[in-house]
Design a protein that fits this description.
It catalyses: ATP + (deoxyribonucleotide)n-3'-hydroxyl + 5'-phospho-(deoxyribonucleotide)m = (deoxyribonucleotide)n+m + AMP + diphosphate. The chain is an alpha+beta fold and 393 residues long. The protein is 42% helix and 11% strand. Strands 1, 2, 3, 4, 5 and 6 form a six-stranded antiparallel sheet that branches.
Length: 393
């Protein structure tokens, strides 16, 4: 089923220019239905190309290369780029040999200044577009696959602290994309497209179950692979051990509305804790920790009873009957020497960082569990909270 790296894929045939033109059209048109219609035409064309290339053959080629560019903020499979607007501006100035004291260099570095950027102040991508307009080719020559490969190199250069590799990849991107393509590429790198269409709308256009599946697995490639056919519904969206997923969130309501909202049924009141929402996945002596945003922080808290700032202290707290489970709760910082035991986020504490618990800080992580979603390989997420809490006890 695997696709050979050298094999023909849809992403290797579709120009990056096409996805940028798509974003231009979505941005310039008004109304959600109109925007969704434009996107639907693009996904339909992608599926047609997929059928021409692969027919009925099983393949892992999917819409993922495009989806990760349309929803860059949800792409957890590529390492962080490690740069914001100012860092990218410095790269561009150096690559293009723009004089550091020139007006264009100042526009890039001081992109928020209205005197330099006029109505586009604060929008680095737009400021860069005007600076690059006479420095880039009129139309780019890269495919979506080539752009993704180069973005991988940018990210790997950051992760491995190889600045030259990052610079080299950015240089190829600059030399082979138009100013318009650069505008959208910058927004992809910054993970904020600003096209006036919601994440849910993009998921819904791709497949009616895409949002639900993503909320369960938090993996864009899996969503695209499992939901290739929009006419086939996905009915088995179950949470999976050691795979991050979006936790259920509370609805904001005035206290005097609660009884009315609950229709006079029995309900449970819990203390709101000022920590970080976390999921703990456990199977035997293997542990993983995921934040509300589906980022993994196992290195901080420990993958086994022999390591980390938390797992060694809680590994023996589980019943011997529990072989595997997923717990939902709040990660707090505990200070045994302080009269106020729990430290709040207002104290400017990062509950996820190893630095918080290192040295002589006196702080220890404390995981306050308020829900259980899986026990011994069986999902109990569909049970009522009251029934789930009975399992927790």
């Amino acid at each position: 089923m695997a696709t050979d790296r050298g094999a023909k894929t849809v992403a290797s045939q579709v120009p990056f220019h096409d996805i940028c033109s798509l974003l231009e059209k979505i941005h310039s048109n008004k109304g959600t239905d109109k925007k969704k219609g434009i996107l639907r035409s693009f996904t339909g064309s992608w599926r047609e190309t997929h059928n021409k290339i692969h027919g009925d053959a099983k393949t892992d080629d999917s819409f993922f290369p495009a989806m990760r560019l349309l929803l860059p903020q949800f792409d957890k499979e590529r390492p962080a780029y490690g740069m914001k607007e100012a860092a990218l501006a410095r790269h561009y100035i150096e690559i293009l040999s723009i004089g550091k004291d020139s007006l264009d260099a100042k526009k890039l570095l001081n992109y928020k200044a209205p005197t330099h950027a006029l109505k586009d102040a604060g929008d680095f991508a737009m400021v860069a577009y005007f600076v690059l307009k006479n420095r880039c080719p009129e139309k780019g020559s890269l495919t979506i696959k080539q752009v993704n490969d180069l973005l991988d190199k940018v990210a790997m250069g950051n992760m491995e602290h190889k600045k030259a590799d990052t610079r080299s990849a950015l240089q190829i991107l600059l030399r082979n994309t138009s100013a318009v393509e650069q505008k959208w590429l910058i927004r992809m790198i910054m993970k904020e497209l600003k096209v006036g269409i919601s994440d849910k709308s993009i998921f819904d256009v791709y497949h009616p179950d895409a949002m639900d599946v993503f909320n369960v697995c938090s993996i864009l490639s899996k969503v695209c692979q499992d939901l290739k056919d929009p006419t086939v519904r996905k009915n088995d969206s179950e949470i999976t051990l050691f795979s991050a997923f979006k936790p259920m969130l509370g609805q904001r309501a005035a206290i005097d509305e609660v009884e009315k909202l609950m229709n006079e049924q029995e309900f449970i009141i819990e203390t709101k804790l000022d920590g970080e929402r976390f999921m703990l996945h456990k199977q035997d002596n293997m542990f993983k920790y995921f934040s509300r945003g589906s980022n993994e922080y196992t290195t901080t808290f420990g993958s086994s009873p022999n390591e980390g700032f938390l797992t060694p202290f809680i590994a023996n707290c589980f019943s011997s009957k529990v072989k595997s489970c997923i717990l939902d709760g709040e990660m707090m910082a505990f200070n045994a020497s302080n009269e106020i035991k729990f430290v709040s986020k207002g104290a400017n504490i990062d509950f996820k960082s190893e630095k918080t618990y290192s040295g002589d800080s006196g702080l220890h992580p404390c995981f306050v569990v308020f829900d259980v979603l899986l026990v011994n390989g069986k999902s109990i997420a569909s049970l009522s909270l009251k029934e789930r809490l009975a399992n927790l006890e």
